[in-house]
Write a structure and sequence with these properties.
single chain; Rossmann fold; two-stranded antiparallel sheet; globular
C-alpha cells in the first residue's frame, strides 16, 4: 500500500522561487557589456530551469565548449552571484502554501541543482534558510538530478523514507529524479516549462497549475 506523503520537497528555480527576472536581467547585463542587444524576457524564461549553460546557449554567439562560451558563462554567474536576489520573489501562492504546511507541522525542504554558493545567499536573502528542514544544493550530493541521489539524501536527512515524500518540480529531470527515488512527484506547470516540453509525458503523479493546488493534492490523502 502506498504511503501517505508527509514531507514536501521543492525544486528551487521555477517551483519555489521565480528567479527568471533576476537571471534574465543578469544575462542581458552581460550581453550589454559585450555590445549585444537585449533579449526579450519571454525568450529567456523557459531556459532558466536548465542552468547557466542553457542560458549561455541563448545569450552568447560563441560556439559551445569554446573558451569564449565559457568566459560568457562565468561572466553571467559573476553578475548573477553579485545580485543573486535581485528581482527574485516567491511565486504567488507559495508563501501561503508554506504557512499552511508549517501550521500542519508538515516539514518541507529544497532540492536544487543550483550550486551551494548561489543557493545559500539566495535563501538567506529571502529569509527561507531557517524555515526549510533540509536544503540540498547541486554540489551537496555526488550526483545531480536527474540522478535520485540528491532526493535520497534529502529524505535521509529528514529521517523519513522516500515513499513518505513528494517532490515538486518544473523540469523533466525533476520528475525523473523523484520517480527514481521512489517519491510522489508533482509538476509545477506555473514554472519554466517551454513550448517544446511535454509534461503530460513525464509520468508524474499529478500536475498543478498553481501552488494552491499543492495543498489540495495533499489534502486528497
Amino acid at each position: 500500500m502506498a504511503q501517505v506523503p508527509c514531507k514536501v520537497l521543492f525544486d528551487l528555480d521555477g517551483t519555489l522561487l521565480d528567479t527568471a527576472p533576476s537571471l534574465a536581467w543578469a544575462l542581458n547585463q552581460v550581453r550589454a557589456a559585450k555590445g549585444l542587444p537585449e533579449l526579450e524576457f519571454d525568450h529567456i524564461r523557459p531556459h532558466v530551469s536548465h542552468g547557466s549553460v542553457a542560458l549561455t546557449r541563448i545569450g552568447s554567439d560563441a560556439v559551445e565548449d569554446s573558451d569564449e562560451f565559457e568566459q560568457f558563462r562565468l561572466a553571467l554567474l559573476e553578475v548573477y552571484g553579485d545580485n543573486v536576489a535581485h528581482r527574485t520573489r516567491l511565486f504567488e501562492g507559495i508563501d501561503n502554501l508554506l504557512q499552511k504546511l508549517e501550521a500542519q507541522s508538515i516539514p518541507w525542504g529544497i532540492v536544487t541543482n543550483k550550486p551551494q554558493w548561489l543557493t545559500v545567499p539566495l535563501l538567506e536573502a529571502l529569509d527561507l534558510s531557517a524555515k526549510a528542514t533540509v536544503i540540498i544544493s547541486g554540489d551537496t550530493a555526488e550526483q545531480q538530478k536527474p540522478h535520485p541521489a540528491p532526493l535520497l539524501l534529502a529524505a535521509e536527512r529528514m529521517g523519513v523514507t522516500p515513499q513518505q515524500c513528494v517532490y515538486i518540480g518544473d523540469a523533466e529531470r525533476d520528475i525523473a529524479a523523484g520517480k527514481a527515488a521512489g517519491m510522489y512527484t508533482l509538476i509545477a506547470l506555473y514554472g519554466y516549462i517551454g513550448v517544446d516540453d511535454f509534461p503530460a509525458q513525464w509520468g508524474a503523479d499529478a500536475m498543478v497549475h498553481a501552488p494552491d493546488d499543492i495543498s489540495g493534492w495533499l489534502a486528497s490523502f
